[in-house]
């Protein structure tokens, strides 16, 4: 088993969250946070900020970026574990814009499109939205079916 470290950033307003419709690549045709692979020359926080900027146009400073989750994903038949570090910020600069990869859109919290998101999101978003920190593990069969999972709140990372 080897690991790939990835980031996922969810920008919040009091009653809304910014999601992006992924137009290509892994998880395409789903609404998701912004993120991607951590490169060799950068920290996980630096990668989170860079991927957010590249995919949405928004800029967040390191001081405003808060880690809220850490999730390991395993896919049946794939020896690579995805270690996804989930961050949030309520402070950002810039205007979001559509990129080749993502179409950003604000969603009211009661209108989050879980039926068009990764199946795990429905399980951990409530923790994230209520300000809790969490750690999870999800075993997927294909991209839609969760065979097994664990999800726990944690005090800090
Ligand atoms: N089950 C899951 N639930 C979820 O909410 N986000 C997931 C997820 N599995 C992966 N992600 C996130 C992590 C990361 O932000 C993104 C995938 O990373 P990337 O955008 O780098 O993938 P790509 O294959 O598009 O890479 P590039 O071609 O390098 O852009 O999806």
From TrEMBL:
Gene3D superfamilies assigned to the protein according to its UniProt record, in alphabetical order: Nucleoside Triphosphate Pyrophosphohydrolase
Coiled-coil stretches noted in the UniProt entry, renumbered to this chain: none
Annotated Pfam families: NUDIX (PF00293)
Entry GO terms, CC: cytoplasm; nucleus
Known cofactor(s): Mg(2+)
Compartments it resides in: Nucleus
Principal cellular location given in the protein's record: nucleus
Top-level taxonomic group: Eukaryota
Protein function: Oxidized purine nucleoside triphosphate hydrolase which is a prominent sanitizer of the oxidized nucleotide pool. Catalyzes the hydrolysis of 2-oxo-dATP (2-hydroxy-dATP) into 2-oxo-dAMP. Also has a significant hydrolase activity toward 2-oxo-ATP, 8-oxo-dGTP and 8-oxo-dATP. Through the hydrolysis of oxidized purine nucleoside triphosphates, prevents their incorporation into DNA and the subsequent transversions A:T to C:G and G:C to T:A. Also catalyzes the hydrolysis of methylated purine nucleoside triphosphate preventing their integration into DNA.
Family: Belongs to the Nudix hydrolase family.
Subunit structure: Monomer.
Protein name stated in the entry: Oxidized purine nucleoside triphosphate hydrolase
């Amino acid at each position: 088993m080897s690991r790939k470290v990835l980031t996922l950033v969810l920008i919040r307003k009091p009653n809304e969250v910014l999601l992006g419709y992924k137009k290509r690549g892994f998880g395409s045709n789903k609404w998701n946070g912004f993120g991607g692979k951590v490169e060799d020359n950068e920290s996980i926080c630096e990668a989170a900020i860079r991927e957010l900027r590249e995919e949405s146009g928004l800029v967040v400073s390191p001081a405003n970026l808060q880690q809220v989750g850490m999730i390991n994903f395993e896919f049946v038949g794939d020896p690579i574990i995805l270690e996804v570090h989930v961050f949030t910020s309520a402070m950002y600069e810039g205007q979001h814009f559509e990129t080749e990869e993502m179409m950003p859109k604000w969603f009211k919290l009661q209108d989050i499109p879980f039926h068009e998101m990764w199946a795990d999101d429905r399980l951990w978003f409530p923790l994230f939205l209520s300000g809790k920190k969490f750690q999870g593990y999800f075993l997927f069969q294909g991209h839609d079916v969760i065979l097994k999972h664990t999800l726990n709140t944690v005090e800090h990372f």
